[in-house]
């Protein structure tokens, strides 16, 4: 696997302090649920399932991270959670169109492949780097600028 040419911004649903708070809350709810499950009080046993589901959801959300890279081989889309990691490679040959939209501080490049789109968010100052990569690896496709 080749090294990355351009790394997109990491996409996480929450800032680090919120992820830490959500993870601690999830582990606390899971501990309470396990404690209740193994206690002898049958009245509280009915509450263990909702606490377990909410706790596992909190833990999953706190550990989710999405990253996108542009490499010599193509576009790599990577998803990470606590114990698993998924990686999808989209070769440059499968990209049929490129759309670039600009905002105040970011540029968003959307690579179209059949019916699926892959979107990468990059900083405004890396626009020339993106255009160089596109001209090198996708010379037959001209990027469509969207304002």
Primary descriptors:
147 residues; alpha+beta; PH-domain like; 2 domains; four-stranded antiparallel sheet; four-stranded mixed sheet; 4 helices; 36% helix; elongated
Walk me through what this model shows.
- The chain is of the alpha+beta class and 147 residues long.
- The protein has two domains: 4-11 and 73-146, Pleckstrin-homology domain (PH domain)/Phosphotyrosine-binding domain (PTB) (PH-domain like, Roll); 16-62.
- Helices cover 36% and strands 34% of the residues.
- It has four helices and eight strands; from the N terminus they run βαααββββββαβ.
- The strands form two sheets. Strands 1-2-3-4 form a four-stranded antiparallel sheet, covered by helices on one side. A four-stranded mixed sheet has the order 7-6-5-8, with no helix packed on it.
- β3 (74-80) and β4 form a beta hairpin.
- The two termini are 35 Å apart.
- 14% of the residues are buried.
- The model has no long low-confidence stretch (mean pLDDT 85).
